[in-house]
Amino acid sequence: MDEKSNIAILVLAAGESSRMGEKVKQILPWKDTTLLGNALEQAKTSMVDAIFVVLGAYEEKIMAEVQLESIAIIKNHNWKDGLGSSIAAGIEHFSSKALSFDALLIMLADQPLIDSNYLNKMMGNWRGNPSKIITTQYESRMGVPAIFGKEYFTELQKLNKDFGAKDIIASHKDAILALNPEGKEIDIDSWETYQEILNKKAK
């Protein structure tokens, strides 16, 4: 890996997924693995330097179901505070372990259509535009997966609410480079959505 493009991936998987009822979203079956397992496989097959996963709710169940031997685990004890707290926990971990990265790619455990090709496309765009925040374009907003250069790490470390990084993205509009995910951005936020995606995939 080129030393100039030292990028880490942070997979957010600490949430309670309350809209799933008693089901643990991170370990729902997907292909021959789980939703989180799939996200980690896509990260592993991308051109990234290091992979971290943030766990919180259902930590023990997830660790029993998902192969995490080669993944650095970050525990977010404040997971109830939402996505922002998991991002902050990631940055705090880097600082406490004296880990240095030029950029951080933030992705979710519940976007199963996000693949290594898209992650590589994002990283390629950041390498060509290292002053930019590379985001994913949604219908009416921009969001994750997203890449932030190290100059944004201090802001990311201050996040503590469920809106994640969207306020940082909104406050740096001039620095945004948004990519079209071509339908891969869909996230599983309910049992119904999960069933719909499974049905489409089976056709």
From TrEMBL:
Organism (species): Maribacter algarum
UniProt keywords, alphabetically: Transferase
Protein name: Nucleotidyltransferase family protein
Origin: domain of life: Bacteria
Chain ranges of the MobA-like NTP transferase domain: 10-174
InterPro entries according to UniProt: MobA-like_NTP_Trfase, Nucleotide-diphossugar_trans
A Pfam family hit: NTP_transf_3
Molecular-function GO terms, alphabetical: nucleotidyltransferase activity
SUPFAM superfamilies per UniProt: Nucleotide-diphospho-sugar transferases (SSF53448)
CDD domains: GT_2_like_f
